[in-house]
Specification:
Layout: H1 7-23, H2 34-60, H3 68-93, H4 109-180, H5 184-202, E1 208-210, H6 211-229, E2 233-238, E3 247-249, H7 252-263, E4 272-279, E5 283-289, H8 302-314, E6 320-323, E7 327-333
Parallel strand pairs: 2-4
Antiparallel strand pairs: 1-3, 4-5, 5-7, 6-7
Protein name: Histidine kinase
Organism: Pedobacter duraquae
InterPro entries: Bact_2-comp_sensor_kinase, Sig_transdc_His_kin_internal
Length: about 325
């Protein structure tokens, strides 16, 4: 409310009108007690605040049956009436406003006309100031949104160009490498690497992928990882068949395995055991024995943060992380598309 109703500008307007009307007095005001200044400022601020809220309400709320001109007339008329009533209540229940240039009563038609005229000009000033600040804020917000959209568009164009250029070159190179390779292990490695790369290129962060596709991809990914870690990395996959048709965010399983291999020590003497299984909630659980590296790797937590944010954006459901001195476990919900 503070931002949408431009309350900052209400205080600025109140300060300007209070100080300027006091300075316009011809006689000295230093002889008056301080509470008279508080009384004067409170009455003026109260009238301005009522006008400000009424005008702001009509600016910020859409009324289908009213045109822009109708909203202007109704908001100004209501603020005039409200300011007039507030002035009468202040006059009736608060101490006399001796700082006013001339005390105007409510005894006759001439007095009422003066009060009405004052309320009219006060409402008009509030409308002009609110209109100016609201329009400027809307223009600034639109400009910022356009800049953000422009940057996103440029990033999308860059990614599109990269995906158009690099896949053909890489797949042709992998095909050539497979042809010239003389031993079967090298050929198998090239085939699995091509499978991994093809899957990564096809995935879209905005969509879900079937668990069966993610599992097939992760087998190719683990083939490459096992060439690197050999028997230092042991992965057990136990996924119930009825869960294979459910969905997870694409590459989420790869991020969890990468997180485990990145932050844990791996050796033949101290293997890293990773368990991939499902339960009947249904959920996918990735668990590993906790043996952290002595030197903390850079970018800690990026993979888990990525998965957490994607679940929050896609389905507004949390992931569960369990960490103790023996195990590290992440549970992600399996989803219906």
């Amino acid at each position: 409310m503070f931002k949408s109703y431009q309350i900052k500008w209400f205080f600025i307007l109140t300060g300007i009108l209070t100080i300027s009307t006091l300075l316009l007095r011809q006689e000295t005001i230093s002889e008056y007690p301080y509470w008279q200044f508080i009384n004067y400022g409170f009455q003026l601020a109260g009238s301005i605040f009522i006008c400000w809220l009424i005008i702001g309400y009509f600016f910020l709320h859409k009324v289908n049956s009213l045109t822009i001109y109708s909203k202007f007339v109704i908001s100004v008329l209501l603020s005039i009436i409200a300011s007039f009533v507030a002035g009468y209540l202040f006059f009736t229940f608060l101490p006399p406003n001796v700082l006013a240039t001339r005390v105007v009563l409510y005894d006759n038609l001439s007095d009422l006309k003066l009060h009405f005229t004052g309320s009219f000009f006060l409402s008009l000033v509030c409308y002009v100031v609110f209109y100016s600040t609201h329009t400027n804020a809307a223009l600034q917000e639109t400009k910022l949104e356009n800049e953000i959209l422009g940057q996103a568009h440029l990033r999308a164009q860059l990614i599109s160009l990269q995906q158009q250029i690099s896949p053909h070159f890489l797949f042709n190179s992998l095909s050539t490498l497979k042809t010239i390779a003389t031993d079967q292990p090298t050929k198998n490695y090239v085939v699995q690497l091509a499978t991994v790369y093809r899957y990564v290129l096809n995935f879209n962060e905005e969509y879900l992928t079937p668990l069966i596709d993610e599992i097939n991809f992760i087998r190719s990914y683990l083939y490459i990882m096992n060439e690197r870690f050999e028997d230092g990395l042991k992965v057990d996959i136990q996924v119930q068949e009825e869960h294979l048709k459910l969905f997870v965010p694409a590459l989420s399983l790869q991020l969890l395995i990468e997180n485990a291999t990145k932050h844990n020590a791996i050796s033949l003497e101290q293997p890293l055991h990773i368990s991939i299984r499902t339960d009947n909630t249904p959920a996918l659980i990735v668990e590993n024995n906790f043996q952290p590296k002595k030197i903390k790797p850079e970018g800690t937590g990026n993979g888990l943060k990525n998965i957490t944010e994607r679940y929050k954006l896609l389905v507004k459901r949390p992931i569960e992380i369990i960490k103790n001195e023996h195990i590290f476990s992440v549970t992600i919900p399996l989803l219906q598309k």
